[in-house]
Structures are given as C-alpha cells and as structure tokens.
Write a structure and sequence with these properties.
Length: 525
C-alpha cells in the first residue's frame, strides 16, 4: 500500500539478486515484481539502470509490461563521480531516464570508505550527495538515499555519518535508509544509533543483512526506534547470509505490532506468493521459514496433538490462515491416536476410536521398517482408506513386472520395463523405455492403464528421492524411495521401502498412480 505513512520497500531484484547461485533474467524480474505487487508492497527496487544492461532493459519493459496496483518502481544508482557535475554524469542520466518515479541513491557514510574506496575527500563526498540529490529532485523524481555502511561509519566517525544524513535531507532526499551493509549489528546497539539518526529531518529507513542472524530483529528494533521505512528481500534472499526477510518483517509488524502495511487479503496470500517466487528463482523453498514455510505450523508430538484437538490456538502463535498457511499434523512414530485422528479429519475422514488405534499400530509398525509418512501424505491417505475399508481395494492388480538395464555399444544406458496388470477385468501387458529403471516402469504402467483411465495422461512424476537407511537390530540396510507426482492442480508424495531399490521405487510408483486415479474421481474396486 502506498499511503506514505510507512514504507515497505523490496530490494529482491537488486540486493536479493546478489545471492550466490541466483541468476534472474529480465522476464524473471518482471514476474517477481508482479508477485511482490500482489502482496501489496509500496516500493520495488528494480535494479541499477545504466550500470547493468539487464536492469536498463527491465526498466524499459516495465513501462509497458508492468501494471502495478500497489507498488512504485525505484531505480538504484550511485551519486555522481567525484569532480564532475550530476547533470553531466551518464550514470545519473540513466537513472533520470529509467522512467522510475523513485531513485534510490547509494552514498558512502563511513569516512574510511570515502577515503579508501571512493578515494576522495570527505567534503567532496558531501558535495556529490548534495549535487546528485538536488539534480534528480529538480528533474522531478523522488529521491531516497541508502547510507551505505552507516552503522560502522557511525562507530568510526559519528559526526561525519550524521553530516551525510543532514546533507541528503537538506538537498531533498525524502527517505534515508541506514544500511547495515556488513550485517554485523545486534538489535540493542543498532536501535540506539537509529534513535540518534531520527533527529535528522528526513524519514529514516532501515536496510539489514543477516550475518548475525538478526536482520529481522534489527529491522524491528529500528522501527521501534523510529524508522518508518523497512527494506528487505523476498524469502530473505541476498548475498552471504541474506537480507532481512521481507515476508517475516511484514508479518511481524502487521500481526504483532498492529501496523497496517499491506491489505489483509493480500497478507492472506503471502504463503502462496512466497512459493510462487521460489518457482521463478528456482531456489528450493525453506520449509522452516517463519510464517510461510511448509513446516511453519506443522506439529509432530503426540502430546501436543491431543491438546490441539481441544484448541489449536494452544500450540500456534497466530492463526496460520492470516498468512495463507495451514496447520499440519505430521504422522510420525512420535504420534499418538489424537494426531492420527486430526490428520484423518484434515483429509476429510472421521475415524472411530478403533480405526484410529489400528491405524496408529500400522503406522508404527511400518515406520519401524523404514517408512515415513511425514513427507508422504498420499501414502498415509491410502493406508487410512485401506484401514477404514478393512481390505485392500485397488484400481489395478499387478501380476508381475520386469526391468532390464542395458549399456549399449555406444555406451548409453537404457532401461526397459514390462508390466503385467489386471484392470477392469482385462489383462494388460505393457512395455516402456526410459533413461532409468523407474522412468521406464512409470512409462510402462501409464501406457498400460491410459486407455482405461485417460486422466493418467495429466499425471507426471516430478521428483524422486532415494535414501539408504542403516540396518538396525541385525537387519540389512533398506532403501526408502519418495516419489512426488503432480496433475494439473496439485502435488502428492508416496513412499516405498525395500532392500531392493527397484522394488521400493515400484511401491511408491504404484501408490502414486493409485492416488492419481483417486483424485480423478475413480473409486477403487
Ligand atoms: Zn544491502
């Protein structure tokens, strides 16, 4: 939202993109900007036009391709070079021509950085700030200033660090963001410095890195000390340990401190948005991320579960729906009957006491053999259905399967699988080829069943994880295989365990297909 009382300023596309392994195309950046706008942030920093051709292109395309509802774009850049005029500096020109309503100028506020990195005098650095800010203001842009290394600079030379802020404010900068560029600050000392800085006239902002694990805490401490502009990155992206996680900051300020930062309904979309951004960045989502992680509201212990049944709020700090997340019950060997009943309810089954007890026993027995249901909801649901029905009902029966792996003369490895099945009263023999045995089995099963169940064409295997579990009590090691499948709307995971990896894979695959058929509305039998 952009009512200017409090700024939520995202820097994923500039500072977040510095994360090791992250490589965003212009299309990726536009997609992320749309997601951030859907959340309702006030400002999206798009990059450094003029210094980086990709960013120049981003700002050019943004003018026609981004239709932002809440956010304004900010172009990032440096103050003019020493000994020139802002009006003549080509990099300042690129900021002017970016089309962004806001320019965020980075400036040195640490005396030693001015002398050693910028290699100019302290006075010239102030002149660079004054000249660049007032030039861009005169050209009609709103100017924010990122005071780089501000906290270290304040320790080194407090008078000069504050002089930088005053100079920028007098020249017309409307926000001065204090940057903990090295990320070494702790909340209490940071808050003291922020408090001093709020004495200068511009709005004070905060930009934290997570090198001490305190980026979010530092940001909250700065707000408490008077900052009214917070910077951060989606999912805490950023170089080294990352930047302050903007999602955590927003949720904390809005749900715990009563700030009205983004619309309620978009906050309730935060979990989806956080995951949608990971799809673009191709960074595996952190399942333990506060508020938006898959595990953020997941409960395991059996003792908790019985109380949760009485009142879920006893064991969660907020209602997960406020950020679009869900409470989940993990089915594990720590679980008792209560958590199995809750999990059943989550899946839409009211279980009798007797069925729950039987299910708990089956889960415990299977987990002792290496199964895990925490990451395999679909396998648990199939087990639950079998327990409720009292017998095994299947969409298809397996007569046999065979897999051949061949290394060809050309040195290529190819796999061929043949499956023999019974379905809808027919005997089916099907063969599939693939680059590995599991891939070949998967193709053979679908090829065999697709004629009878055309919906299977929508189902695909998207992930396959193998883990060798050490043998216990004198038994051999076993292999656990987790398979994740998807159709047009959702994903599900299934598990198989055996001493033989192919058999373990087969079990997971057979359940994956069965679950896919159940989802498509086919009743087994
Ligand atoms: Zn930074």
């Amino acid at each position: 939202m952009n009512d200017d009382r409090f700024h939520v300023y995202d820097t994923t596309l500039r500072d977040g993109a510095q994360q090791e392994g992250l490589n965003l195309t212009v299309t990726d950046k536009l997609a992320i900007a749309r997601h951030l706008d859907d959340l309702g942030v006030g400002f999206i920093e798009g990059g450094w036009p003029g210094a980086n051709p990709k960013d120049t292109e981003f700002f050019r395309l943004a003018q026609t391709e981004l239709d932002l509802k809440y956010a304004q774009l900010a172009a990032f850049g440096a103050t003019r070079r020493a000994g020139t005029k802002a009006a003549d500096d080509p990099l300042v020109a690129a900021l002017r021509e970016s089309g962004a309503p806001v320019v965020t100028l980075v400036a040195k506020s640490h005396d030693r950085h001015v002398e050693l990195a910028l290699r100019t005098t302290l006075q010239e650095n102030l002149a660079m700030i004054r000249d660049t800010v007032s030039h861009l203001r005169a050209e009609g842009q709103r100017v924010f200033l990122d005071a780089e290394h501000f906290f270290d600079g304040y320790k080194s030379n407090p008078a000069y660090a504050l002089e930088v802020l005053r100079t920028a404010a007098e020249a017309g900068a409307s926000v001065i963001a204090l940057c903990d560029t090295n990320g070494g600050m702790l909340p209490d000392e940071l808050a003291e410095v922020v408090h001093v800085a709020t004495g200068t006239s511009a709005r004070i902002g905060i930009h934290c890195h997570d090198d001490t694990g305190c980026a979010v805490a530092n940001t909250l401490a700065a707000v408490k000390a008077g900052a009214t502009h917070v910077q951060g990155c989606a999912n805490g992206y950023g170089e080294r340990s990352g930047n302050a996680n903007l999602f955590t900051v927003v949720a904390n300020l809005q749900l715990k401190r009563g700030f009205d930062l983004v619309p309620r309904e978009t906050l309730a979309d935060m979990t989806r948005i956080a995951h949608a951004i990971t799809e673009v960045t191709n960074v595996t989502p952190n399942s333990h991320a506060p508020y938006v992680g898959v595990s953020a509201f997941a409960h395991k212990a059996g003792l908790h579960a019985s109380a949760i049944k009485v009142d879920p709020n006893l064991y969660q700090h907020i209602d997960p729906a406020e950020v679009g997340n869900d409470m989940r019950m993990l089915v594990s060997d720590m679980a008792g009957r209560a958590s199995v009943e809750l999990k059943g309810r989550e899946l839409g089954y009211e279980l009798s006491a007797e069925t729950s007890r039987e299910l708990v026993n089956r889960v415990k027995e299977m987990e002792s053999r290496g199964y895990t249901f925490e990451a395999a909801d679909a396998s648990f649901e199939l087990l639950l259905r079998d327990t409720v029905a009292g017998e095994r009902k299947r969409h298809f029966e397996v007569e046999s399967w065979r897999v051949i792996v061949e290394r060809t003369r050309g040195g290529e490895l190819v796999s061929e699988a043949t499956v023999k099945l019974y379905a809808k009263g027919e005997r089916i023999v099907a063969t599939g080829e693939g680059n590995g045995p599991v891939n070949a089995m998967d193709r053979a099963v679908r090829l065999g069943l697709e004629r009878l169940y055309p919906e299977l064409a929508e189902v695909e295997l998207i992930d396959f994880k193998v883990r060798i579990l050490e043998g216990t009590h004198g038994t051999d090691a076993v292999t656990r295989v987790l398979v994740t499948s998807s159709d047009a709307t959702t994903e599900w995971s299934t598990v198989g365990v055996d001493e033989n990896i192919i058999e373990a894979s087969w079990q997971a695959l057979e359940q994956a297909v069965t679950y896919g058929l159940l989802r498509a509305g086919h009743i087994a039998g």
